[in-house]
Design brief:
single chain, alpha+beta, 5-stranded antiparallel sheet, 27 helices
Length: about 775
Amino acid sequence: MNELETHPLTPHLRTLVAFTRRSLTAILHSEYFSAALILFGLSFLIFARALVRPHLMISGSDFVQFYFWEGFTRAELAQWRLPQWNPFFFSGYPFIANPQMMVFYPPAWFLRLFPLDYAFGLGMMLHIGWAGLGMYGLSRNQNMSRAAAFASGITFMLSGAVITHIKGGHLEWIYTIAWLPWVVWAWSRTLNLEGLWNGIIAGIVTAMMFLAGAARIAAVAEAMVIVLGVWWLVTHLTDLRVLKELGGLSGGAIRILIGAIIMIGIAAPQLLPSLEFASLSSRVNGLPLECASSLSLTLSDFAFFGLARSPFDQFFEWERNGYVGAMAITLAMIGLTNPNRIKWLWIGWGAVGLLLSVGPSSPVYPLARDLIPGLAVIRQPFTFIVMITFALAGLAGLGMERVIESPRRWHVWLVGALLLIAIVFDVMLYRARPQSYDPSFYGWMSWLASFSSPRYLLTLLSLWMLNWAPHLTGLAEFNTRQIVNRPVRCCRSALLLAVLYSDLWFFSYIVISILPAPYQLAPVPNVFPFEARILTVPYSSADRSMAVRVANAQGYAPVVLKSYNDFVSGDRLPSRCPDFEHAEIDSGEAQLLKLLSVNVIDLNGVAKELKDYYPRVAWVGEAVSARTNGEAIKLARAADFDPTKKVIIEGEVNRSASSGTGSIRVTQYGTESLNAMIDSTSDGWFYINDVWYPGWKAWVNGEETQVYRANGTFRAMRVPSGQHTVFMKYESTYLNLGIWIAVVTWTLIGMMMCWKVFWLFKLSKERQS
């Protein structure tokens, strides 16, 4: 007999192979696998123009930032180090603390296997398909039919709240919003099903949403889960028997607690540094309530849920666009008549989203700012348009069920009325058209997309056909109704879904533009980073400095260090309603440019060299103390201040003055470390005008010394007389703590998963025997 056949592990191996084969077969034959193929296939059709031509890439307003952020991340990871600090914009930036960089986001690790240019289109395609699949799963979890679930999934994944952000270049928005239906689905299962695994899955999914980078969507998810919790309490407290089966209120609370712990544990490497950065940033006090009015939805914005927005009417078209199309609006209105009580949950999400998105115009938004942590920091109330779109997608699924089960002629009359409204709006759009527009094919597509009457007409015809088709087939004259009824319902579903998808595809086409990859690679003047900086105007192009490793005084990011923003602002009166994304520098402020060591001004690609600037590093003999950061900035921004002769130290420090001299030679300038040789005739200070931030440490001849915040926002350290070696390095304590927490969390989850698989394997083996 073969020795392998008699080996004691052979029966176990056979059982494992059989178990694996059955599991894979079950997955491949499952409903969700086929749904994934369909929804990801529909997403691919939207992005096919870019994905089949790898030399082209998706383009958007803010992609220029993500392009260089991701390029910097890849370069650092290729050196086997995390991109903790970036010295190439904002005079230094805690790079990893910004969640938009997506350093710890697992799908981003997969996308980094592909070329940078190609990864953007592929990532968006996969995430939009993932959003549709999540909406499909949520709808099926609420016992909707497959056709209804597809209607919800297609409507949400190709809605204006999702797809228009491609034109805005908001990569993190698309990646994060893809997890929104999954978060709602996971927490719904946590509340409605017993077992600790539901809480663990909810924690993992919520952590993925946070790691994807868009904190605004996390606030939307928080509001939606609150509404879900209220709905669950209202519906289950009236049925104590069901509540008891679910483990009661204490059981639900335990599952929620487990989910929260898992979420914090997994997200800790990003969460802890981000919270530290937020507390030190210009966002720390949030936006005053009165400033939210201009960032809220207006009455005119609601017209574009059903009418495709003309692409030339507003700068914020991607922020205020909740387009779901003619068919989805019609199905959502029909869904209001569905007797299923789950419709009230979707109506609740829509109503809360409406009250929050209109900002101070509603009494709910000011109250929510006090109750929902972090909402005041997220300055755009119109972000909650996502909840309205989400609700419309769910109601469209409920409407789909009503139509395919029992079509009624009033459905046709409803669309007819909407068609008349669409014609009126189309006339208004036509009269407001610009005098000239792009005559290319893309321009014509954009022009046609702004007219919605044909869409409603197509919806009217499709619903009329549904009312007419059963009579045509003569189902009432045959006893074989049960045999032919399913194909007829499938035809109804396919017709409605085809019209729904065609409407949204036509809308999506105009917001996706593709360009050759070199478009992003505009040249940047080369300057030695430890000797001087450049100033790029406009600031939105400053992040290109990362491509050539040149230090820039400007940049663009959603979170900016407050001390640096205040230093740049100087005596300028603070804006009542500030922008948080940049610390804009006026290219005419000669003293500020000198203090920032700006050697070159890059004005729209034209370089202008400056001769008069202070060096990046200096040995300083005199130090004075300032009681507050504001006082230090005021002193440092004085017209006669010279940072090579005096350094202003924040906090208590003995005033010192020396007539000695010193020289500094930088021997190594890395992304998060610096080596220098100092030779001085007396005690003094080593000063570098890179931004100070907690985590920067310094050593003189191997002995650690304190790094002070100097001149309001930069760094300085004491150095004794003589020849010395200085080493400065950035290392985030919060990051290290977060990594350890995540490792422990994933280890516990892995052990529980192994135990679960072992239990299933054992059960399978017992069934075989």
